[in-house]
Structure to design on (342 residues):
């Protein structure tokens, strides 16, 4: 019995994965790959969206959660540009995307672990750049009436609908999570083409922001796909359920530990150990997503960095000479054509 207790001790003592991933300041300098599922995994080759752009500003910078798979970051920038140019949306305020190497977070989300999720505030970007302090303190505005489940028409505008429609228009986007009241508002008011409503799914929270989720990307065979959305526009009995008592009943066990408080590295895909152990790029600037012709902090163009990057030893599963800008397998990333000065 004593020997069994000794053998079990290391397993019980293994550090929580959230503590390991939550304290990594930079991404794994490996090819861009997602491992596992959105709520149980990690990713390598992450890039950061710049804190500021012509049509976006990143919020809550202290969290260090503006990292994602290159396809995710490219899509967020594209959404910001398209919404500003075509839909009358002044610009995006960007919430959490992922930690530099993904994995379970110290606080907050259960998902956002594999670089393929992003939160966008439903508050439009102000005309002036927000200070760092403002980005930490300003709250997003709820679209839902106080103590209610339906949209407050004093804050909801047609531009909100156009922004969500724009996000749903991209083939990479598989789901957009919103408060049930927002989904109902769309069901009640959208005319013409309603096929995009299929991607918009009701979920708890999400009254002041929406959650974009893209699918597993080529070159990530270890990424677990989510189930397909059900046929139709979702304006049916599945939506009506959210306006019954059942979804809002108090949690019977509010003190039960959350998944992130139990996950150890043994809970995650085995590749996540290599992701955690991989070297980091030279700096945050070197791993920040940018357009053609920009340079890293060493003065080397990103194209040159990619060209010079050494390969990964497939037998060892570890970098020989790793770089955060190794190309994403089988993916051509759309790059923005303009970048504000650093």
């Amino acid at each position: 019995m004593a020997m069994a207790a000794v053998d079990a001790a290391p397993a019980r003592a293994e550090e929580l994965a959230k503590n390991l991933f939550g304290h990594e300041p930079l991404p794994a300098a490996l090819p861009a790959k997602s491992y596992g599922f959105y709520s149980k995994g990690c990713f390598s080759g992450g890039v950061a969206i710049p804190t500021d752009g012509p049509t976006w500003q990143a919020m809550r910078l202290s969290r260090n959660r503006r990292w994602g798979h290159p396809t995710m970051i490219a899509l967020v920038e594209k959404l910001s540009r398209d919404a500003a140019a075509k839909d009358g949306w002044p610009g995006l305020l960007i919430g959490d995307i992922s930690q530099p190497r993904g994995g379970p977070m110290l606080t907050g989300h259960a998902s956002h672990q594999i670089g393929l999720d992003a939160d966008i505030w439903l508050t439009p970007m102000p005309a002036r750049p927000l200070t760092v302090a403002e980005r930490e303190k300003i709250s997003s505005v709820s679209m839902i009436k106080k103590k209610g489940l339906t949209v407050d028409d004093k804050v909801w505008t047609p531009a909100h609908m156009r922004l969500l429609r724009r996000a749903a228009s991209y083939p990479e986007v598989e789901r957009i999570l919103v408060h049930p009241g927002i989904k109902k508002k769309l069901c009640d008011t959208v005319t013409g083409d309603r096929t995009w409503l299929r991607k918009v799914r009701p979920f708890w929270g999400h009254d002041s922001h929406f959650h974009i989720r893209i699918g597993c990307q080529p070159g990530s065979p270890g990424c677990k796909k989510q189930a397909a959305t059900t046929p139709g526009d979702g304006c049916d009995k599945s939506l009506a359920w959210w306006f019954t008592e059942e979804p809002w009943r108090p949690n019977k066990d509010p003190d039960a530990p959350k998944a992130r408080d139990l996950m150890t590295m043994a809970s995650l895909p085995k590749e996540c150990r290599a992701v955690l152990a991989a070297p980091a790029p030279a700096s945050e600037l070197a791993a920040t997503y940018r357009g053609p012709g920009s340079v890293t902090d060493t003065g080397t163009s990103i194209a040159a960095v990619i060209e010079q990057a050494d390969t990964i030893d497939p037998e060892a599963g570890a970098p020989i000479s790793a770089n955060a800008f190794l190309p994403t397998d089988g993916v051509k990333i759309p790059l923005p054509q303009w970048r504000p000065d650093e």
